[in-house]
Amino acid sequence: MAIRGASNDTPMTENGPQIAWQTCVIDEIVQQTPSIKSFFLRLSKPFVHIAGQHVDVRLTAPDGYSAMRSYSIASSAISSPTIELAIERLPDGEVSAFFHDIAAVGDEIELRGPLGGHFLWPEPAIDAVLLIGAGSGLAPLMAMIRQRRTLKPAVPTALLLSARTAQDVLFSEELHSVEISDAAFVLALAITREKPVRASDFSRRIDSMMVQEIVARLHRKPTQVFVCGSNGFVNIATEGALLAGLDPSSIKTERYGG
Predict the structure, then answer these.
(1) Of the CATH numbers 1.10.540.10, 3.40.50.80, 3.30.1330.30, 3.40.920.10, which one belongs to the domain with range 129-255?
(2) Distances from the Cα of 102 to the Cα of 29, 44, 94, 235, angstroms
(3) Which residue from 27, 53, 60, 91 has the least number of CB within 10 angstroms?
(4) What is the pLDDT of residues 94-136, one digit of tens each?
């Protein structure tokens, strides 16, 4: 997710009302990959979100210094007192370093949300969707995949996910389970630092030819494209989608920082 300025303390929703801060408690921490942990946060004021939305998290030091970052919600879009955030340790990321090195089960965290009205799973979803992500940029896409599974029938969807190694694939077990059980779901990994195990995966960075091949596996041109990752990744993946002939107006992007 993009970094938000800490001075933006009372944002307005698309409909006008302010979204208040609330306190949540860390119920569980799961090491998902060597650099990404999932934090399950129990909300004091549960809300219903749409897959693709995010929350702002605010940390305040004893001396009054505060830092704020935005993190996509990875959990399914249902009414629940608990949400999942997948937080990647980033170089020089003060908030991600806090979560990885200091945060513990039982700690209280301030957050507000859900926020975001652009990068959203289409409802109703009636045509093919292409998801492209890297690292913790999978989080909002995973929420979309989880929300999609509630649809009957589920729309054809492909996920093209970039990772350094197989060990760095976030939610790997769940993704492979969806692929096995759902013929309308296409999974392809772009492994950049080792040879992939599966013949259906790639051993290079995402490019336009790769995007074209994934679209061919969908057997139809996607009318919705969602790209999420670091700034550089989003630029490369978006260019690949455009060179693959996808409609620019169909491409929505989300970027994350530290």
Answers:
(1) 3.40.50.80
(2) 12, 22, 11, 33
(3) 91
(4) 899 999 999 999 999 999 999 998 999 988 888 999 999 999 9
